[in-house]
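All the exercises in this workshop are built on plain-text protein records. A learned vocabulary of local backbone shapes supplies the integers on the structure line. Once this layout is familiar, the rest of the handout is easier to follow. An example says more than a description, so a record of this kind follows:
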Amino acid sequence: MDSTVRRNRPKNKVVVIMGATGTGKSKLSSDLATRFPAEIINSDKIQIYSGLDITTNKIQMHERQGVPHHLLGDFDSFHAEITPSQFRSVAAAAISDISSRRKLPVLAGGSNSFIHALLVDRFDSESDPFNGSDSVSTELRYHCCFLWVDVSFAVLSDYLSKRVDEMLDSGMLEELAKFYDPVADESRPKTLVEKSDRSPRVRQAFPKVPSRRPRNNREGQDNTCHLPKKQIEKILRMRGGNLCGIKPVDHECVNKGSGPTSEDR
């Protein structure tokens, strides 16, 4: 397509809800979509696969408030790993579909590599803007309203530690036992747990006997709290790359002072 035509074409509008895990992105996206004619597109690179609903903390059907969710559990866990480039394609198709029906696409999730790949006008799959000297693109192909749900790390860390216990009580280890075999043949297809950048921490927290609680719950809690730090670093990198539209929204304002809840993701 001629670049002049592409530049002059009206851009679709997208609300982008960002933030570390546990800050309330899913709840905020569902709340917004009940007040506006909107549909939600998941941008969590693990929740995009089916299964492990407890471990990946997917928003449950009754919590979705009747709002359509796209790319949430849509791919088989043994499917070839979805890359940022592939996500860019399937999520762009979802945005076009939602916009064509005069509804507002709301992008919600914590995988910032997916968010960056989707939103930038020119995406280079060979570069990594979050490592080394590669720069974060500042040209966007959509009109974006960024909502970065921010919460102090002390509050978030305390909540995530409690959430590990809640997930264990809800049957996370039994769920993991069906998907993860630490001694399986390396030639077999990998499950979504092993594809995840959380996989090494799963192996450390639950070694060899996934049907039992880890001897030291603190280890599992520390591993869970490691992810938000990486997510926040990537958001700051995008914000520092002149995506100045990324502005923090206080978590207490989003949740009306209630603090993190079971719906916070």
Observations:
- Residues 155-223 form one domain.
- The beta strands are 13-18, 38-42, 69-70, 104-108, 143-150, 248-250.
